[in-house]
């Protein structure tokens, strides 16, 4: 189980820093401001986005404390419609790369995974508002008689909107409006890899990873629900929805090398890395930054998003004194 | 795999709050002050401890910013000796419950698991200074043909200094001076449970848990290196060092019940809970606070202890202006 020296190992720590580039730097800068809906912080907005939102004063109240969705909007539908209208205009103006990936598939916007959704938003736009993003990933693995522990990886289709042609975990997908966690895992396993139902009975929930990434597209405070699926040696995944170019079975040690390359989707590496830690490939004996890496697989998004709320139905424009308290995230 | 309703489930979240009682409240209060050695924050000191340390001005510099070990001490040995002398006096005076558990077994005091040790201190005293504490735990489990996934728990000897008579993970121990992680795991597995060497080859490193507990004895910013060990159905652990009263094999679902009782050592529950999450017993479908619980199994001790340092060899008494920066933990 030992790996080839320390040079390789500190590369894993660098990787953990890369998928947490926003957690480790941007989050501490005052440039990004909280985004409030109904008095709750649901996101973070970068200056480039804030500048565009200023053009819609009837929808967004923009101040030094942050951005607030107009509290006059009455309900989920009105809030969703108003934001959708703005996003479609910004998309037509070609202002943001992120909006080029419009999918007509919405994510819920809420303060917490359990709480009632405040509005829905096309999934390509959530990164503009730094909305928390929840997904499901399946580590499809094989205990190979010759190669030992192996993982199936998929190569994403070259026509995908995001991360085209990059390597990825066997199965993964975002949690979109109206779908449960296990339901999404089953659905994606069947669509992406044609996993038959009798094998899905072996699916084991195995925790979650949380990290905070930033790219030119926006902010990604991501939480992935992680599942492990042991597969028979003779099972070969076959894509059914056109989103995967190919699959490859790799010995665990080669998986470690693969996630360290630029060919792997950065925001999918935490799930594979967590698998390799849980299954004894990356250990405190072979990885000197073991504790720091595990901490960076579980950054406290619950706390980051939970500590900056203002009471419901407080219009922060009318209540200047309370603003300063919430200006520093 | 589904569990019996939500009432039971939110008990797990309460448990996670219990073993993080200091993380969730004390840490945010200004009462506890950082403890500096050679300019690095290595701990946190409660007011009751600070009051006692005031009696040793030649050893501890106590100010509003925190407590500093006299920077005039030249090296590891002198620092260790000076603190040892104070601790033996305080022990003789019967001031602290914690010191009743004196063991003549030292833990290293360092800024980070990897860094050079600054001094050593009897393990019973580290909680007085809020020194980070590293241990090793082994989840000994069986895939039972009838009972399904089962875990071995140990009942601690009634004569143990800490948590006497409480239930605990099959094998666990602190990392004491001069011993490595895997070495400690092997040593404890043999001493506590008589696990033979050929079975120890199946030991799988499976991550770590980090939490921040407080009791009447002191502060416990603990990190446990976690190992899983699959055992044959016919293996029965036998204690060899007198520290265990008995062992019991329990189906995973009963383990969940057991760690929720007051009969289980609170600071050992995170390891068992992490096991039950990684092995699909506690899932996002049956535990509504799943994400919050996993976050509380990985609190950012690296960040908490890493952000409050002052440069080496700066005597903070001579440099009043820099103190305010470090006064708020």
Automatic annotation (TrEMBL), chains A, B:
InterPro entries: DUF4743 (IPR031804), NUDIX_hydrolase-like_dom_sf (IPR015797), NUDIX_hydrolase_dom (IPR000086). Pfam families: DUF4743 (PF15916), NUDIX (PF00293). GO terms for molecular function: 8-oxo-dGDP phosphatase activity. Residues 133-274 form the Nudix hydrolase domain. This is Nudix hydrolase domain-containing protein. It comes from Psylliodes chrysocephalus.
